[in-house]
Amino acid sequence: MAVLHSAPKSASNDGVAEALTAALGAMLVGAHEAHGELILTVQRDAVEDVLRTLRDAHEYQQLMEIAGVDYPERAERFEVVYMLLSVTRNHRLMVKVSASETTPVPSITGLWPNAGWLEREVFDLYGVLFAGNTDLRRILTDYGFEGHPFRKDFPLTGYQEVRYSEEEKRVVYEPVKLAQDFRNFDFMSPWEGADYILPGDEKSQMPATPPVDRPSTTDKPSDTGAGAKADAAAVTKVASGAPATKDNGTAAPGAPDATRGPAGASPAKEDKA
Questions:
Q1: What is the dihedral of CA 173, 175, 179, 182, to 10 degrees?
Q2: Is residue 230 situated within a structural domain?
Q3: Residues 6+ apart with CB under 8 A from 180
């Protein structure tokens, strides 16, 4: 039995963009809807005032997440995305601001205390600075880590690893030691350099697609193992219900009679009325 709820999973976006556009005025850069969510792009320096307005005047009580996005080709390469939830209106909203590597974004720790941890995460992974955050330290990587892992220009291959040493009771840096050399590829795999066909490689010589335009049949009668006379005799026997025979006319060994079961089985008893 289906359970029906009086409230939908999330409230409709109808009329929300118009109302928020009028409320935010010049602080709003643009508003659009994507994937069923309403997204507002606002002035970076006004983000604290925008979020305060949304919290106090439009019932977006909760800051659910702060995320970062990197677009290296842009002059202001980073986007900071604030994800808000209105518990009373059952509605979600995304607010975006842009920033460069040296342009700080105003901190909103005065609006939501949990923003302190979220801003530290964006700073650690992307390098975005938050002006007013009094505890802007790394939160996921080690204190001595160099760079920001989620930047799209961050090197994907490293030569040092960080681990906690139980012997030394501290975090240590040491060269990467792997069972296989994932960091340096010479593209000279022995599987590619053999001058003979390896088992299974013969399949690569087969055509990519079978010749489906030509039906898979025998090309001549001799390919079937039987001649025209045998084919004609088989058709006659099948039509008459006669038992199978050899080509010389004698019954084939083990061939059952038309009224009997398989060879070796006892005759079937008639059903009594």
A1: 110
A2: no
A3: none
Residue 93 lies in a domain: yes
Which helix (H) or strand (E) covers residue 217, if one does?
Answer: none
Nearest to 31 by CA among 55, 45, 12, 13: 13
Supply the CATH number for residue 78's domain.
3.30.460.80
Pairing assessment for the beta strands 91-99 and 130-131 based on DSSP bridges: unpaired
Q: Which long-range contacts (CB under 8 A, 24 or more apart) does 39-43 make?
A: 39/94, 39/95, 39/96, 40/93, 40/94, 40/95, 40/96, 41/95, 41/96, 41/97, 41/98, 42/95, 42/96, 42/97, 43/97
Per the CB < 8 A criterion, the answer to whether 210 and 217 are in contact is no
How many residues are recorded in the chain?
Answer: 273
DSSP H or E stretch at residue 171: strand 170-175
Q: How far apart are CA 242 and CA 236, in angstroms?
A: 9
pLDDT averaged per 10 residues, the chain (length 273):
64 92 96 94 97 97 97 96 95 97 96 97 97 94 85 80 88 74 52 60 62 62 64 72 56 54 52 49
| Residue 161 in domain | no
Greatest pairwise CA separation for the chain in angstroms: 104
Domain count, the chain: 1
The domain in which residue 115 lies consists of 16-131
